[in-house]
Amino acid sequence: MIAFARAPATLPEGERVYAVGDVHGCLDRLRAMHGAIAEDIARRPAASVTLVHIGDYVDRGPNSAGVLDRLAAAPPPPGVGAVVNLLGNHEAMMLDAVTLRTPAAARLWLANGGEATLRSFGLGDIDDPAAWGACLPADRIAFLQGLALTHRAGGYVFVHAGLRPGLLIAEQAREDLLWIREPFLSAETAFEAVVVHGHTPVPAPVLRPNRIGIDTGAVMGGALTGVVLEADRVGFISA
């Protein structure tokens, strides 16, 4: 059973949101997380259930291709009414490497785990960036290009990396939404909404008055973490 605590924000009555942290190619963990979410919904049905994946589906882990297949084409866990998939900085690097085809974009992606993603799609020779686009399925590239940067629900905003303090959500730069750490992580003032984010690995979920961090380093031996938000309560699921 999920242990709930008082949440730093609220959702409307009957609404529930599950948000899942950085997957990084860990397909088995994602399957287990979806199974745990389905089990929780079966035990505790809700009128409206949304599942948010917080970004960083690819790179470093063993099966980025399988993760993208599941997110893009598989049905959602039973009981989930809507799925929101957010863009992470690793998807942004992958898209730049494949579509811009510049040496700088290719080097940046490979330096951050892109080789594991290419291997998962069956590419044996990764030394020719000009050939990457032809080896990656067009529908998966289109899926990545359609990912959202933010999602709002009740008193929460969901985003991959975080927000720059002092700016409204509508004023945030794409670079910060995907990459920011400081001054976001140490900010103590309230944002426009409580921020649910990944991007920065931590040993355990972070629950603060202004943010909830759920990247617990699944690809580095930690758990894959999901947060459960409903009414004025918050709980966590690990897989």
Describe, in plain words, how this protein is organized in 3D.
The protein has 239 residues and is an alpha/beta fold. The chain has a single domain, classed as Metallo-dependent phosphatases (Purple Acid Phosphatase, chain A, domain 2). It has helices at residues 27-43, 64-73, 89-99, 103-111, 114-120, 132-135, 138-145, 174-179; strands at residues 5-6, 15-20, 48-53, 82-85, 150-153, 156-159, 194-197, 206-207, 211-213, 225-230, 233-238. Helix 3 runs antiparallel to helix 4. The longest helix is centred in the N-terminal third of the chain and has 17 residues, at 27-43. The mean pLDDT is 96.
Summary tags:
239 residues, alpha/beta, Purple Acid Phosphatase, chain A, domain 2, 6-stranded mixed sheet, 5-stranded mixed sheet
Topology:
Layout: E1 5-6, E2 15-20, H1 27-43, E3 48-53, H2 64-73, E4 82-85, H3 89-99, H4 103-111, H5 114-120, H6 132-135, H7 138-145, E5 150-153, E6 156-159, H8 174-179, E7 194-197, E8 206-207, E9 211-213, E10 225-230, E11 233-238
Parallel strand pairs: 2-3, 3-4, 6-7, 7-9
Antiparallel strand pairs: 1-11, 2-10, 5-6, 8-9, 10-11
In short:
This protein is α/β, with parallel strands linked by helices and 239 residues long.
